[in-house]
UniProtKB/TrEMBL annotation:
Entry-linked SUPFAM superfamilies: Ankyrin repeat
Signal sequence region: 1-29
Superkingdom of source: Bacteria
PANTHER family recorded: ANK_REP_REGION DOMAIN-CONTAINING PROTEIN (PTHR24201), ANKYRIN-1-LIKE-RELATED (PTHR24201:SF16)
Protein name: Uncharacterized protein
Entry keyword set: ANK repeat, Repeat, Signal
Ranges for the ANK repeats: 32-64, 65-97, 131-163, 164-201
Originating organism: Neopusillimonas maritima
Amino acid sequence: MAGNLGRFCNKLATAAILALVFFSPIALANPMDQYPLHTAAKQNNVTEVERLLSASSPIESRNQTGATPLVAATKANAIDAARVLINAGADVNAKDNIQDSAYLYAGARGHLEILKMTLANGADLKSTNRFGGTALIPAAERGHVETVQTLIDAGVAVDHVNRLGWTALIEAVILGDGGKRHQEIVAILLKAGANPNLADRNGVTPLQHAQKLGFKEIEDILLTYKTTK
């Protein structure tokens, strides 16, 4: 009799623990989801993000990639969720395992609304990605004209050199397509004071790269800034 009672008590205790785990406010959405706040953030589910934060879900928790909920929201360009997280105090400079922060990723991908939110909430303009580059460099490479202007206006250094030996100007030339967007970015960078004669680690200048690639319009823009061949 005592043995049966003991087993019954053990089962009752186990059931109580499972109820606490699976029916807690944080676990209700999906009891198998280890990162419910990340999931809600990625899905731009503002109601769920707010509920989880109210239930004391850690705002700086890390998932398997080292991302915080804000980084997860940023990578999904989930603007509303990102806004809720930032307003709740999320760190815009917290980096994941591959050195992406909300600020750096938003800049690199041209997620302009999130970028502006990070800039207004303490973004570290000197922070760098896994290639040693500022947010401006990949923004220039990918042709995000308005993002480039926004970052320059915020005060990001235009002549920062990454670990590959490239500046934003060099990347805009050698990794761009030579089209209208990259032409405009080259002009914006030069107008902001980018050094047109700053060569890569092989001694090749932006002008020389443009000439080799046949980007005549970019070549002409560079020549107007009195570059040397």
